[in-house]
Write a structure and sequence with these properties.
single chain; mainly beta; Rossmann fold; six-stranded mixed sheet; five-stranded mixed sheet
Length: 415
């Protein structure tokens, strides 16, 4: 146990000074021009009473649909139907569900309540054994019909739950359905979905050894790579054949390229200081990383073709957690000071940074597969846990509550 405690202290050091878990306030440096946009955002409203037909199943499925839609944050889904004779600027979904020998059939009509106008009719069918798939499909179609956004129903979340027995690794659908236990160990860190969502990479500590494990979520096949010294989050290349690892060797913390097929490690950085890999661009050209030269962590870009480096952050002494948008149009990172977190958006086209100021500390940001949302671990007004943030409206919501859950990641849910 003393050895494990020693290792936990080392990991705590690495996490605090690399990932941005700041235990104290930090002073500010000169700040470049940042455009702050305050947005007024009115939620859309859609009314979805229980579908007619299969009463018990309809109640369960419409409840799931309402919950999924509300998790998109910019739409409010209500159970009550429109009031007779009262015109409101909202939408109404009326559906009929039937079950024929284990096969579900759903007819759903989307109405504009104010205009009293039928907008669209959805005819869907699926298996009663996976009835949620029918709802995921309908949810995404409704989101796309009512907005300019893509639906998130076919996505999934991974996370670590810390217990007295050790760490437990889970994945679940964005709907919070199909929770699946994957692994247990004294310490599990930094689960990361591959770009396709088919694999999950994470670090484990057990039997006094560290290892990187890559789990195929469909075949169950697991690859294991032993690690000497400390490590940090594994960062996937777009083609899923390589990972960037943060490794400590001989009191230096540098970035390495791991070829999954050959197990070969290639050194990417060699300068003095502590570094931590954050994200790789969708085209595989750039690596965003954190570099602390001794005056606090800052954000840098490494061109993986030319190995040129470019500093991005100047907002203060504590900038961490760089993430490329899945659309590859901008980079986000966290800037912490005075007990609060600023989310900095850095667009590549015009370089005009935008800022979202949050009243509290957030960490471990993960983009939605569509790029319009973040999932973060935070302690904000609703409590401690995982929060969803809709970047355009800046609406946030406590998605999963708990002080013992860590390292959220967001991936695709392919079928």
């Amino acid at each position: 146990m003393p050895y494990l405690l020693h290792q936990l202290k080392l990991f705590t050091f690495l996490i605090i000074f690399i990932l941005g878990w700041s235990p104290y306030s930090l002073s500010q440096e000169e700040i470049p021009k940042i455009t702050i946009e305050t947005q007024v955002f009115t939620k859309l409203t859609i009314r979805i009473p229980n579908f007619e037909g299969e009463s018990l199943l309809s109640s369960k499925l419409t409840s799931l649909l309402r919950r999924l839609i509300n998790n998109h944050l910019f739409i409010l889904s209500l159970e009550n139907p429109p009031l007779p004779g009262f015109k409101a600027k909202d939408y109404y979904l009326k559906g009929y569900l039937s079950n024929q020998n284990g096969k579900l059939f759903l007819k759903a009509d989307l109405w504009d309540s104010f205009e009293n106008k039928l907008l669209k009719t959805y005819l869907l069918e699926g298996s009663s054994k996976k009835a949620e798939i029918l709802i995921y499909t309908l949810c995404n179609k409704l989101i796309e019909e009512l907005s300019n956004y893509k639906g998130l129903a076919f996505s999934k979340i991974s996370f670590i739950k810390r217990t007295k027995r050790g760490d437990e690794l889970y994945i679940m659908d964005f709907s919070k359905e199909n929770l699946k236990f994957l692994a247990q160990a004294p310490l599990i860190l930094f689960p990361k979905f591959s770009p396709s969502g088919k694999k999950l990479a994470y670090l484990v500590y057990e039997n006094k050894d560290y290892a990187l494990e890559i789990l195929n979520l469909y075949t169950g096949e697991k690859k294991r790579f032993n690690i000497e010294g400390l490590s940090s989050a594994p960062i996937w290349f777009p083609d899923e054949t390589k990972l960037v690892l943060t490794l400590s060797k001989k009191e230096e913390v540098n970035l390495y390229l791991l070829d999954i097929g050959t197990s070969n490690l290639t050194l990417l950085t060699s300068e003095r200081g502590i570094k931590q890999a954050g994200s790789i661009s969708k085209d595989g050209k750039y690596l965003a990383y954190v570099w602390d030269k001794g005056n606090g962590p800052q954000i840098y870009l490494l061109n993986l073709h030319t190995y040129e480096k470019q500093r991005i952050s100047y907002e203060g002494r504590y900038n961490t957690s760089p993430r490329f948008s899945p659309k590859n149009d901008y980079l986000i990172y966290l800037s912490q000071a005075g007990g609060a977190t600023r989310l900095i958006l850095y667009p590549f086209k015009n370089k005009n940074k935008k800022e979202i100021s949050l009243k509290g500390l957030i960490e471990e940001p993960s983009f939605s597969p569509t790029g319009e949302y973040l999932l973060v671990r935070a302690k904000l007004r609703e409590g401690t846990g995982f929060y969803l943030i809709h970047l355009d409206s800046q609406i946030s919501h406590l998605y999963l509550s708990g002080s013992n859950i860590f390292f959220p990641d967001w991936g695709n849910l392919p079928f």
